[in-house]
Amino acid sequence: MTAILRGDLVARELDDATRIEVERLRADGIDPSLAVVLVGEDPASEIYVRRKRLAAEAVGIRSIEHRLGAATSQQSLLALIATLNADPGIHGILVQLPLPPQIASDEVLGAITPHKDVDGFHPVNVGRLSTGTGGLIPCTPLGCMLLLDRVIADFRGLKAVVIGKSNIVGKPVAMLLLERECTVTITHIHTRGLPEIARTADIIVAAAGSPGLVRGDWVKPGAVLIDVGINRIAREDGKTVIVGDVAANECDHAAVLTPVPRGVGPMTIACLLRNTVQAARLALA
Ligand code: GUN
After folding, report:
1. Rounded to the nearest whole angstrom, what is the distance from the C-alpha of residue 171 to the centroid of ligand 1?
2. Cβ–ligand 1 contact at 275 (below 6 Å)
3. Is residue 132 part of a domain?
4. What pTM value is reported for the model?
5. How many CA atoms lie within 13 A of 170 on its CB side?
6. How far is CA 75 from the centre of its chain?
7. Are strands 159-163 and 203-206 parallel, antiparallel or unpaired?
8. Is 117 in the pocket of ligand 1 (CB under 6 A)?
9. Parent domain of 151
10. Pair 257, 152 in one domain
11. For the chain, what is the mean pLDDT?
């Protein structure tokens, strides 16, 4: 039998701890505040930004939304970021991705002051992560590790296979697993013999954005599966459903599986709030 590791329940516990930390910061005279910047009208981004705002408010973090039109120039976006960087009342800055094509995402992410970079995407934070020297850690990879911590006491020597090489999930989660002394293989859509590689894994982190990619026969009995996929697919009856990257109905022989929905998704948001209070603490230091 597979244990279902419910990220929504773990996220609730994290939020309780964050709420306490917010109260402590208030007592120290700091009102933790998060600026969320949304450019354009991407429907998925609208949903994520709304969720982030509601979640921030629920733990007592002030959230300020900046909405810019789809035709916004890179220069205006950089000007907004400069203003937010300079504002001592703002502790975290998040620019929702993807950005419209006229804007170079790497320039924008690189313009955020590293200690306000609650997404952990600034090159300084990426460098800190890869050298194990602190910094703000990207939210989804951090959420994956906090889930794994619930079911694995000692990571040393375990074989971890990461499927997906994105800057947002694949690469940073591989670094975090490596830091715990796992033997890490990063794979992607062009990897040859992916099923055989996946079958060697004690831990699989599936973050390819491909519905049901990880089949039952890719999974070693007793493996731990972290499903990062959030794929919207249209069913035959016309309804849209959200499915992960793991064919969950074929994986009864796994030891642990995170569901989709109610798995990694809620952890991402809880980690954003956790990073925001960490950033606010940095401002106090
Ligand atoms: N778009 C998809 N995932 C993310 C994320 O983690 N952070 C931001 N800023 N945008 C995203």
Report:
1. 14
2. no
3. no
4. 0.97
5. 17
6. 27
7. parallel
8. no
9. 139-264
10. yes
11. 97
